[in-house]
Amino acid sequence: MRIYISADIEGVTGVSTWEETLKGNAEYDRCREQMTREVAAACEGALAAGADYIIVKDAHEDGKNLIHSMLPEQVKIISGWSNHPYNMVEGLDESFDGVMLIGYHSGGSSNGSPLAHTLSINSIRNITINGKKADEFLIYAYAAHRLKVPVIMVTGDGELIRHVRAFDPAIKTVAVQEGFGGAIVSIHPNVAAARIKKAAKRAVENIVSFTTSQLDTYELKVEFKKHQDAYKYSFYPKAEQIGEYTIRYVSNNYMDLLTLLMFM
Ligand SMILES: [Zn+2]
Question: Which of 24, 30, 240, 256 has a C-alpha 20 to 30 A away from that of 198?
Fold first, then answer.
């Protein structure tokens, strides 16, 4: 069984400030280590359930956060960015049996995390796809489903996990922190790792039961923080400006949406 893991840091146990997510800050090393522990736990669970190939995309900032030597020896890492439209799940293809998203977080305009955002922190206020709030989980779940690969497990903040469960209750989840205003309450880092290992094992053991879905048409709406950006993207082929801060883009090929998002 081939498992693809995409890892972010904002939804890792104990992470609640931008400083903790950026290199050069005192608390960053602790956070990248916990990010790595949570990915390692997912890998261990997957291996225990019979996975024989695991590749991990380091999907935060420069894509060079995970400490490879802390992961099981069978695990490969994609670090840096190829600039493929698959972005946080680049390198994923039809050959994989399941996707796990570790350390993911609530999307823009959500109060589920002090670090809630979708893709660009500076320019995007929020994104919807077919009227549904689209966080990074949803954006890349549709990307995986396009390849007929199911998302089998997600970890992150509580609000994200509620969104994941509403999307597909079959997905195994672990909420490692709960945001309230500018604060979070986190479970203990050891408990997070133990729960993630257990959930990953269950996800891979039940991998045949997961399903994927595709929509006939994808309607993307992006609300920007600056009206200048909505004006600019209104010139992207087939995009239209539908409000002072918002553009709309429709395609029956989800790859077109991923390509537009890559240029933002
Ligand atoms: Zn991130």
Answer: 30
